[in-house]
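Predict structure. Input: Succinylglutamate desuccinylase/aspartoacylase, 342 residues.
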Amino acid sequence: MTSSAAPRPSRISTTVDFSRDGKQTGFLRLPHSVHRSAYGWLPIPVVCIKNGDGPRVLLMSGNHGDEYEGQVTLCDLARTLQPEDIKGRIIILPMANYPAAHAGLRTSPIDEGNLNRSFPGNADSTPTPIIAHYIESVLLADSDYMVDLHSGGSSLNYLPTVVGRQGRTPEESHKVYDLMKVFGAPIGFMFPPGTEDRTSTAAAARQGVISILTEMGGSGTVTPDILKIAKRGVRRVLAHIGSLKNPAKELSEELPVRLTRAPSQAWFVYASEDGLWEPLVNLGDEVVKGQPAALIHFPETPWKEPAEVCFEESGVVVCKRIPGRTERGDCLFHLGSDFSID
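Output follows.
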């Protein structure tokens, strides 16, 4: 763990005793003194289910508030999972960045904070870094595994994808990949180590926690097909790591996962101009280097020729931008290239 996350105790308190057996529901209380509420606190909902010794698991969604598939998945699990169903402890945090999730926004309306770019956090800052600090220094510091459920949110749409962070050693990478395979999304996407140190998976790595996250659809909505994959995947992971007492049912089927990666930013396609963009390919298409990806039109000057944007590498289209209006620097697509872990 980095030095900035360890020495300072969190300002967040909780109504839940994470060491107690049974099922508890309550809130993480983040002090928030504002004009309308001088001694108020932000209520971050939390569920703790514990039954003796066993794996310690953190299940999280709402890291970005406009990503709903994970929040629905964890609400369902919070209602249905009981202590007699499990071994060890499962902490469920369905609205991790509560202000953002409550508002249905990617970032917090209070401080504009992006929780997944805020780790290891800061106990003496604004709400988003305080939440990041608590997750890393309290929850992850007392966990063995983490599953962080994301999707494309309002601005992106993904193929159902399970995401891992490549380990510092082949052994670490294989542990992550095992969880990805068990989750069973059609696409697996592996980030190389050291690509970004402010995310939940980077925080988990600093704490020695094996973690995966997902990118489950998006477009600011929820679909039955995506939810089925997300709900099934979480339960399969819990069965695989020994959290569920009767894992056979969850693991009865082996599901194919196509493992991909993006070795560099060249696998991401960005808008070169401000305008109205026209996609030339669809999610799941196989594309080749140099192939046209999009046209950017200029309705304000409709006689002007559109700008063409091309793919810089080959691969499968795993992600696509949703809004039609775009600005220079917006991500339009990203690709995955096949690879294997040796």
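Residues 150 and 215 are 5 Å apart (CA to CA).
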